[in-house]
Each structure stands twice: as structure tokens, then as C-alpha cells.
Hints:
Blueprint: E1 4-8, H1 12-24, E2 28-32, H2 35-44, E3 49-53, H3 61-70, E4 78-83, H4 90-96, E5 101-104, H5 112-120
Parallel strand pairs: 1-2, 1-3, 3-4, 4-5
Amino acid sequence: MGPQILIVDDNPVNLKLAGDLLEIEGLTVRRALDAETALEMIRENAPALILMDVALPGMDGLTLTRLLKKDPATSNIFIIALTSFAMKGDHEKILAAGCDTYITKPIDTRIFTIEIKKHLMK
């Protein structure tokens, strides 16, 4: 069992697609539909990498990212924003919140797992 990846996305289709693609590659994946559930899961067993939807119900993904990056126990988790926000300024806003990088949705299934594996190797 290698490093764990947590996917946080309120869209069940996106959650399934991303998770299935990673599991096919032999990676260990956990899933959360909202930030509050994700936070509980992270406190129980911190993943190596989080794929974080930006627009979530309740607490949004950038707020959760800020909380995680402020906490010494979780500040080293690599966080990739998964977002459909690709307008000018969105990239800077995502990085300013503490995300390490971002992937735009819809995800490109041909390169998605390559990108994730690249970040797991860091």
C-alpha cells in the first residue's frame, strides 16, 4: 500500500472518474464529498496528496486548504486544486490560498495520472 490520495469533490461523477483513474494505476484513493468530511478524514489519517475541488458546498476548497497549510500537522500535504475556474487571476488566487498547483476540469484522462504520479514522487 503506497501513499494515499484524498479526492475532495462534491460532484459524484468527477469523484468517481478521478478515483477510478488513479486506482487503475494502483494508487490508494479515499474520497470525500465535502470539506468537513475531508477534514475529519485528514485528521484521522493524513494523505500524501489531496485533489481539492475549489467550489464545494459549505466550506470551500480554498478555505480548507488555508486551514491545512496553517496547521503544522498537515502543512506538508501536497494539495492540487481541481477546478473549472481558469479565468485570469484564478491561478494566483488558488496558489495564494496554499495549493501547490492546480489541474483544470474537465480533467484530461490521457495525462491526469501522469501528473499525479509526478507530484507523488516529490
